[in-house]
Specification:
- By secondary structure, the protein is an alpha/beta fold.
- It has eight helices and five strands, in the order βαβαβααββαααα.
- It has helices spanning 16-24, 43-51, 63-66, 70-82, 99-132, 145-157, 162-169, 173-180; strands at 2-8, 29-34, 57-60, 86-89, 94-95.
- The protein has a five-stranded mixed β-sheet, with helices on both faces.
- The relative contact order is 0.09.
Length: 181
């Protein structure tokens, strides 16, 4: 029996394309998740894995739907192989029930991890370049520059305690010390 697994990262994405492709290759049941591939807790994948028996095949639309890291993919495929369960990826045309499919799986999964690392490196480089240009990421400041100046003046005047200053500006102690720095 072919069991399908489909996953999208966010709720505004759609599973239809993946589900259609899985049905087209003969999947009798399809499990799905709406979760990041980096997350380990995926109920739909767990259900699919629990349902699989020796002789069955787990089918995904694309390798990155099953997992994002090489180690995770390889471990999952090894677990399936030990249980005499095959694996098939529609887009990469991988079928681990064949010797050639096993080789191709390892090559493609290494490339998938390489691609993810490239994306991470590009993101880091982009953030660094933005910081150099004076852009600041993260949450917007709770206090305006004027409020921060007033807060520091209150603190330096030593007429109010830190707790009182925090109440005046509706901020936490950790936020106060962050602004003070």
């Amino acid at each position: 029996m072919k069991i399908g697994y489909a996953r999208v990262s966010t709720a505004d994405q759609h599973l239809r394309m993946q589900e259609d492709a899985l049905k087209q290759v003969g999947c009798e049941m399809i499990y799905h998740d709406v979760a990041s591939g980096a997350k380990t807790a995926r109920a739909g994948l767990e259900e699919a894995l629990d349902h699989l028996r020796a002789g069955d095949t787990l089918v995904v639309w694309k390798l990155d739907r099953l997992g994002r890291s090489l180690r995770n993919l390889v471990e999952t495929i090894q677990d399936l192989n030990e249980k005499k369960i095959g694996f098939q990826s529609v887009q990469e045309n991988i079928d681990t029930t064949t010797t050639g499919g096993k080789l191709i799986f390892h090559i493609f999964s290494a490339l998938a991890e390489f691609e993810r690392d490239l994306i991470r490196d590009r993101t880091k480089a982009g953030l660094k370049a933005a910081r150099i240009r004076g852009k600041k990421g993260g949450r917007p400041s709770v206090l305006s520059r004027d409020e921060i100046t007033k807060m520091v003046n209150y603190y330096q005047a030593r007429k109010n305690t830190v707790s009182e200053i925090c109440k005046i500006f509706s901020i936490s102690r950790s936020c106060f010390y962050t602004y003070l720095r």
